[in-house]
Amino acid sequence: MGAIALSLLSGFGFGSAAVLARVGMQGMSPLSSVLLSVVVSFCPTLLLALVFAFSDIKDLPLVALAWFFLLGVVNFLGGRTSSYQAIGRIGASRTAAVQSTAAVFASIFAITITGERPHFVVLLGTLTVVLGLTAAVGNSIRGGVANNRGVLIGFGLALVAAASYGGTNVIAKELTEEYGSPLMVSSLGLLFGIILLWPLAGSSTVREVRESRGNMKFVLSAGSSGLAAATGVITLYFALERADVTVVAPIVSTNPIFTLILAQIFISRMEDLTKWLFLSVGVTVAGVAIVTVGSTL
Q1: Residue 94 to residue 118: CA distance in whole angstroms
Q2: Please, where are the H alpha helices in the chain?
Q3: What's this model's pTM, rounded to 2 decimal places?
Q4: With CB atoms 3.0 to 4.6 Å apart as the test, which of 27, 101, 196, 266 could cross-link to 162 if both were Cys?
Q5: Rounded-to-integer distance, Cα 27 and Cα 25, Å
Q6: What is the pLDDT of residues 220-262, one digit of tens each?
Q7: Burial letters 249-268, b for 16+ CB under 10 A, else e
Q8: Distance between CA 87 and CA 72 in Å, rounded?
């Protein structure tokens, strides 16, 4: 049950990060928001790793750095960058709904690459979770496409982010099992994320932060999305240390529910939410329950 609780907390972290990023991008570009969020994510994560996982960092072989580089590419260039770009185009709610398919990608990668063999009940629960999340914004997605074909780019980016996050789950699981503490895996993954993103957005991020000195609302919101995402990443990796990817991924994919609820509370004027939210919550909770039962079989 520890892995289930950590997975739900991770979903809350990622869900709240999406809403905070949406607010931040009213005053910052998506790419600058990504880099700022990764830097903010890195600072507390590194501190925790130095305090609680210093021995794992000290004993890390050099060959492992190539795998952490890959984690940075998949998680931050493929995942967070695509996600924030999608949020800037189609909003946090729609992006989160599409990204719920990360559970499907994660299951496919885990089964085909690492050889996990989940109970069919877990797979049934995964399908139920994805169906519930899709119902939440199904009408919103269809309406958006009908009114503006350009939003298809946003949906495509959200799907790229979903596939990237699915791959991230598998890579992080393998790194945690091979090299130790989830805190170390989190901090090194974020470090390589910064290294990869800085050439793309370093100068623009510094400029936008300086220009926002008179009104730091958007900068603080984008930075706070990094703290929320750090919570999501750390608890996700601790969950993966305790359970299979096929169990953790569908529960973490409940983050759109948190995004929708928080968006309704805090940014309802910016998000076009639908009546399917309550139906989605019920179906998604049922899917999580099925996954939880399946993980014990």
Answers
A1: 29
A2: 2-24, 30-52, 54-58, 64-72, 81-90, 92-99, 102-112, 120-147, 151-179, 182-211, 217-242, 245-252, 255-266, 277-294
A3: 0.81
A4: 101
A5: 5
A6: 998 999 999 999 999 999 999 888 887 888 788 777 778 777 8
A7: bbbbbbbbbbbbbbbeeebe
A8: 20
| Residues in the chain, total | 297
Angle at 272 between CA 271 and CA 273, to 5 degrees: 100
Under 8 Å between Cβ of 131 and 284: no
Nearest to 20 by CA among 84, 86, 71, 103: 84
- As given in the structure block, the two tokens for residue 120 are 């069919």
**CB-hemisphere CA count at 13 Å for 136?**
36
Report pLDDT for 66. Answer: 92
**Residue reference for tokens 């869900």:** 15
Question: Can you tell me the distance from the alpha carbon of 201 to that of 213, in angstroms, rounded to the nearest whole number?
Answer: 19
| Residue 244 contacts residue 118 (beta carbons within 8 Å) | yes
**237/228 Cα distance (integer angstroms):** 15
Taking the C-alpha atoms of residue 193 and residue 236, their distance in angstroms, rounded to an integer, is: 17
